[in-house]
Structure formats: structure tokens, C-alpha cells
Amino acid sequence: MTQKTYEVVIVGAGVCGTSLLYTLSKYTNVKNIAIIEKESAVALINSHKNSNSQTLHFGDIETNYTLEKARKVNKASTLVKNYLLTNDSKQKIYTKYHKMVLAVGAEQTAKMKQRYQEFKQLFPDLQLIDRDKIKQLEPKVLEARETTELVTALYTKEGYTINFQNLAQSFLDNAVETSTKNIDVMMNHKVVNITKKDNYYIIKTSKKTLKAKTVAVTAGAHSLLLAKSLGYGQNYALLSVAGSFYFAPELLNGKVYTVQLKKLPFAAIHGDPEVDDQNTTRFGPTAKVLPMLERHNYATVLEYFQTAGLSFNAIASFFKILSDLTILRYIILNLLYDVPVIGKRLFIKQVKKIVPSVKVKDLTFAKGYGGVRPQIVNLNTQSLELGEAKITGDQIIFNITPSPGASTCLQNAQDDTVKLISFLGNNYKFNQEGFLQDLSQTTVINK
User: Fold this and answer.
1) Can you tell me the mean pLDDT for 406-417?
2) How far does the chain reach from its first CA to its final CA, in angstroms?
3) What's the average model confidence in pLDDT over 121-149?
4) Is residue 143 pLDDT above 60, yes or no?
5) What phi and psi values does residue 420 have, to the nearest 5 degrees?
6) 109 to 102, 129, 151, 198, 322: CA distances (angstroms)
7) Quick one: 313 exposed, middle or buried, by C-beta within 10 A (0-12, 13-18, 19+)?
8) Which residue has the higher pLDDT, 420 or 322?
9) Is the pLDDT of residue 96 over 50?
10) Which residues contact 436 (CB under 8 A, 6 or more apart)?
11) Is there a contact between 41 and 93 (Cβ–Cβ < 8 Å)?
12) What number is the average pLDDT over the span 367-379?
């Protein structure tokens, strides 16, 4: 039985769903909101600290970003940074480290110098540093490295390692505790189906049925499954890329990235201290293709094939993408990284690019770590669509994957709030000026 009508129902309480709840509760006149989550608490899947690279991306040292993309990502990530600086008084959400991207050899160094000239106006704190400065900041990077090897780096003090689960909890707490609105938080409510009846959506969960004027689905890879159930996104499939990590004893003082490989849509290997334990260095992520919507959840294998589809066009699209020899070799190698015994003996070659003195005995496979990043496959063009994947329907939004991940959650929340308010009509307002004004403040509270 339908219990009440909500103006907005949010499906999925990861960092994107909770940031949308926070934005709606604080900066709009929407009065009745529900957020539904199939797990027992917020952010237990891809936003969990074990499931992602715990990095706030700005685009300054991500060498696969163009200047245009870096400008957009920097603007979006700065919203999150400023939220952290003003709201991290109750719980440990982030740790600030320096970060750098290494250029090894003449070719990479030349490109890094060119990149610095192009990006330094957008990132005034960015520095091009030489071997001596690298040694001062990250001695392990130079230890046991050939003295004749040319090494330079782009460096900045503005590196943030984030527990996105704690960030999601902060968004939820701020939404519920500081608002006088009716906000219903429903954990352990798995969505069974969503149907459209007249001008409303009927959302049936494992425990109750809800009625909503508008809906925002922020359920990661499951968003496309729900979109297809309503007839949207039929020209899309998913290539689910799972990332794994290795641990080592304390080797690095901050984040150290490697140059992104051409043609690959996957993050380059990097090392950084754990967000809550500087004595542990995490290296990764690897990238392997798995037919699952959630990592470590084999119940989602069938859902993956329901989402991907087994049409000729889908199979042809996957074949075309994976037949690229660069991508195919990369995927096969990354599959081997997870294999016991031989995995770390292969992966150590990547780690040695950062810390040449590392030994096999130093590495431990991070069991249970790593999530799934759904990469969108366009069945019309038979190619990967990199970046954000969002589908807008009739009074409903589906967020499949924001770009790049949780770093842009508040920008995504702003964009979705604009759309939801337009769905609801002229009587609803979004105070974007207040939203941007609050998130331009950088005063640190109780730190």
C-alpha cells in the first residue's frame, strides 16, 4: 500500500545520493524527501573507503585530463574540498598530503614540462620539480633508482585523501539534523521495481511502496538496470571494470602518480598513504573486467547480463572494444595481478616505477578491497563513452557514474537539483547562490 507521496525520492545512499539529499534539504523548498538504500548503512558499496582510490581529483596531476576537462573537474572538486574544510569537525573524513606525478625519461619529461606550462595558470600551486626536490619530498622514489635516469615531477601541496563513506555520512547527518523538512531515511530497502502511473512514480521496495513526483536514481551500475526497466538507456551497455589494490609498509609521504597510458580509460597506477593510517601505503588500482554490477557480490552477475544485454549489437560492441590490442593486453595482465603468488610478482613491476627498492615481500594483496567502476558502452557507436553517464527521463534522473567518481558529487548534486526543481514546477526554488556562497568558504572549523 502506498503510504505517502514524496516530492523527491532518491534511490541509492552513496556519496552521490547523500550529497543530493544534502543539497535538496538545505537549499530548496522541497519539503518531503525520501532516500532509499538497499544496504544497512550509507556508502557501503563503491563509496566505501575499501572500494575506491580515496582520492579527491582536481585534474592537476591526472595526465589523461585535457585542460578543458581539468577546469571542469577542478571547479567541481573544489566544492567538495570547501565542504570538507568547513564540515570535518565531527568525524575524520580526510587527510591532506602532498601529491605528484612522476615523469621518467626524456620523452615523459618533455611532455611534463609542456603540461606544466599549459596548466600552471589553472593551478597556481602546481610546481615542476627536479630530482633533488623529489628526493627531499619522497626519498623512496629515488632510492635504488639509476642515477642517470631522468626524473621530474609535477607537484602540489593540495592533495586530499578522503574516506568517502564518512563524507556520505556527513552529508546525511547535515541533511537530517539541520533541516525542519520531512526526510525519511530508509535503509535495508532494496528497490524491486519502479513504474510510472499517471504523473507519479510508484517505487516498490523489499519492505514498502512509495509514491513520488520525481525520482533521482544514484545507484551506480544498478542505475542503468533500473533505467532499462522503464525503457531508457536501451542504446547503452556496461563494461564493469573492477579495481584491486596492494598494501605495503610506509613507503610514501604523499600521493605519487605515474603517467597515464595512452588509449586506456583506466586510472594509472599510483601509491598513497591510507586515509586513516599513514603507516600503510596503498598501490593501485588494477583494472580487470568482471561481469558483475558490484564487486564481491556474485548475486549481481545475472543483473549484469540483464543490464548489458546479449544482443548481437552488444556482443559486437564488446568484441570491438576488447579487440584493441593495447586494451586487451592491459586487461589480461590486470587479471593476472589478482592471481595468488604470481600476481604480486607481476604487479611489483608497476610499483617499482614509483618505488624502485620495493621487494616482493613488502607487498600484500588487499583482500576485500576494490570496487566496480561501470564504463558506459554506446551500442550505436560500439565504443566506450568516457566520463559522466547520466540519463534524464520524464521526471526522473539516472546517474550511472559521475566523472570522475565521488570527486564531483556536489557538482552532480547541483546539476540534479536544477533538473528536479524544473520537474516539480514554478513553485519550487533552488538557492544556487547560497549553495555556491557556502561552498566557497574555506574556514577550517575545529581542526
Assistant:
1) 96
2) 48
3) 97
4) yes
5) -65, -40
6) 9, 11, 7, 61, 31
7) middle
8) 420
9) yes
10) none
11) no
12) 90
What's the pLDDT band for 156 if we cut at 50, 70, 90?
very high
How does 155-168 read in b/e, with b if 16+ C-beta sit within 10 Å?
A: bbebbbbbbbbbbb
Q: So what's the pLDDT on residue 310?
A: 73
| Global confidence as pTM | 0.94
- The C-alpha torsion from 319 through 325 and 326 to 327, rounded to 10°, is 20
d(CA 65, CA 82): 22
Dig out the grid coordinates for 18 from the structure: 547523500
Count of CB atoms situated within 10 Å of the CB of 249: 11
Q: Is the peptide bond before 404 cis (omega within 30 degrees of 0)?
A: yes
Whether 158 and 101 have beta carbons less than 8 Å apart is answered as no
- pLDDT value of position 133: 97
Q: pLDDT band at residue 440, thresholds of 50, 70 and 90?
A: confident
Please say if the pLDDT value at position 60 is more than 70.
yes
What's the grid cell of residue 160?
Answer: 586530499
Residue 17 in 3-state DSSP?
Answer: helix
DSSP state letters, 263-285: T--SPPPEEEEETTEEEEEEEE-
Mean pLDDT of the chain: 92
Q: What one-character DSSP code corresponds to residue 335?
A: H
Q: Which of 136, 77, 128 is nearest to 102 (CA)?
A: 128
Query: What percent of the chain stands above pLDDT 90?
Result: 77
